[in-house]
Amino acid sequence: MQHADWVLIILIVLLFYWIVSNIRKARLGKPLYVRRIPGIDAIDDAIGRATEMGRPAFYTIGEAGVQAMELYASLGILSYVADRTARMGVRLITTTDRAETYPMIEETIREAYRSAERLDEFRDEDVRFLSRDHTVYAMLTAAMIEDEDAASAFFLGLFWFTSLLMTEPGARRGVIQIAGDTGPSQIPFFIASCDYVIIGEELFAASAYVSGDPTIKGSLVAQDRLKSLLLAIALVGVVLLTLNAVLTLTAGVSIVEGNPFLELFMRYR
Amino acid sequence: MKRKLAIGITFVVGLYYLLEFVLPASVGGGFDCRRMGSPCLVEADDGTRLYYTGVRALEGSTDTRLAVGLAESRDGATWAKAGGNPMLGRSLFSSKDWRGPDSPAVVREPDGSYTMFYVGHGPDDVDRVMRATSGDGLRWRGRRVVFSLIKETAEAGGEVKRAAIRALAVRRTDTGYIAYFASTYRRGERTIEGVSRATSPDGLAWTLDKANNPVLAIEPENGWEYSTITDLSVIDNGDGLSLYYVGTRRLYMRGSDKPIDTSLVGLATSSDGITWHRNESNPIFGPAIWRVLRSLHDDPGVRQALERFRAIDSSVAWPRRIGLALAAWSGLSQELLDGTALENAASRLSDQEKSKPLLERFDALSLSGLSVQRAGDGSVMAYCGATSAEGQDHRLGIATSSDGVVWRTASDTPALERGEEPQNTYLTSSLTTTMQVFLVVGAMALGLGLFGLVRLHGSRIMKGEKDSVYSMAFFIALLVTLVFAFGWGQREPKVLEPGHKLYNIIFYGMMESFGASTMGLLTFYLASASYRSFKLKNAEAGLMMVAAILVMLGQVPLGQLLTAWLPEQMQVQNVALWISYTIMVPTMRAIQIGAAVGGLVLAMRLWLSMDKRRL
Q: Which CATH architecture has domain A38-212?
């Protein structure tokens, strides 16, 4: 097990400070700037379309297991989507590829229907375990979108090589599709076949974004600040590395050697 | 109440993991509590100094820390660790010796000051030779990189991480410094494996002896120096130079993933430091068990007994013969060999060799680093030995020799013991148990999921709903799989029982074939999705189309043919590489860094129960 060194401890403390200070600001009613994420803004439009057409909406968390952070991010968005569909009277069909996430998904949707005071409209059979096999799960997901004639589909969670198998049939049928994944490998396929794509950390930000809770939005601001800090470190690192390479090649001088702070910087670049 | 319980459990578990990450696995203890290695003997004004590498590996952690320690002796026999150890540890700032200094090679300067050269292991897993200086040999400063094998290896197209420097010995001469180092690196088509040489007038600017390296290549046909050379020491023997080196053969024992390094010491001599001749008596020194076996092998009585054993003839290498002798000695083959002769041979072993049970000696089974120094009429060797074959508990011992070839241990106890064991904080050591708890919880969740499915499909069948035939199919599939997987099908993989055959038909005959056929569908989906993406809907789509066409053309000979007339950097294969590595890789990294930060913040939200909707 790897242990934190002092640089990581400083970063963790800094993140704690930013989260706590921004929550405090939010609770005091101070305005917090939260960037807009087009893919999340489109969720309401997609549900609205399903409402107008009188057809169901479809949601999958992909292949995220209980140890994947993508599952918890996706459950937050699912809670929002279920709340909206319950209020709009739209049927929501959800699938999973894992037996252990089935009760979590079912309870999230049931709770959303309960808070919308539409618990009687919740149907057990609309939460389905399909298969643990990658390709079988993907094919059944695509088939379900077609068979149930879904008007909108959400693919938010963790996806592997079968992402295009799930999304392409819907794209051909004109289903409005919103997809999101934290890894870069499946993003190109989603971009090619979906209307909106939530890229990388936007998936984690999404549940805070849709919650409307100022406390949670405070954490989103902290997330952006940490990201800005890492971006700044990366930029300074690029400049230093380039300068060091140029000076070493032209003048045989290294600005890093012997400078403890720059050595430290280069270690984490 | 349930919610409060969930919040409480989440917080406690999260706090446990956070503390486990932030706090060390253990506190206190010596810098050399795990292992001692790479000794370096140096003549000082008031006796002899012994610099060595101390290894501290935190329990349950991959974080291994190295430091250079110092021991002193006035008579060369009794050694004591110096106060203020370690003398040179891991720098908070330096990136090149991130894991700490290793393999110290300390030389006395004409003005009495000390210069230490050592191997630094960076976070990039690349080895570099570094230098630090000291007026008194106790306080060191000015650490900096002086040379590495990165450039050589990179120019030869080799992987820089494979450019290993395992050990270092430096001699001070009138004109500067000569370094001998055990290494593996690429030069051109050749892999340089063995002892290499570099020279420097000032200890800062070094020149590799490219014409002669390696000056001593490993000789796999020797058997005992089959894999690598792991440590070395160079001394002036009066007529020239003597190079003592540790040859290692890595063995992978059947049924064990852990390799065992068998190491023995060899000697080579040279008049110019470039051309080396191996001593005919090689190997000349080894761990305690090797020394006893060697004694047995040289004993005439044992030889006579071995010759009676028909399987042993002159073509059998002596290590195998002494292996058989060991078997006989321990009573395994008494009926084949003349036991009396072997017993007599064993009784002729020196009292010192018999004073302690062989396998309990500190250097019983493994030997690693060494350092040799001339002392009076003879030589003294500091070496590291371990009781286990895996060599995880090395301690320092002393051996002496009058001729530099035949060595005797000064004592069967170590000259220096490892440092105190650190105090366990129990957080890291309890991690495995905690993970097992989560496995149990995961299994419960699996059972819960199965229960939900059975309840749902069972209720459908009971109610006689329209599609209940599919629910029946679920139960049939569940039962069939359970019976074949848990029952009489899986007991013996090599015996295909009827159940196993059916199991194979279901999974490999049907499931995998169906899966493979659906992947064929993916090809057509890729084509249609690409076609849609490449439509010139807007500027971004146009940019993507141009980039994609360039990358595709860069992969095929046609693209190279079409752009052959352009300057090299503008040819399509180079443009494609530029797009892939300069544009695409940073973008992917940016997404991954952003996702990592987002995941961290979400984890904190969950831990602090800020996002209560999920509980």
A: 3-Layer(aba) Sandwich (3.40)
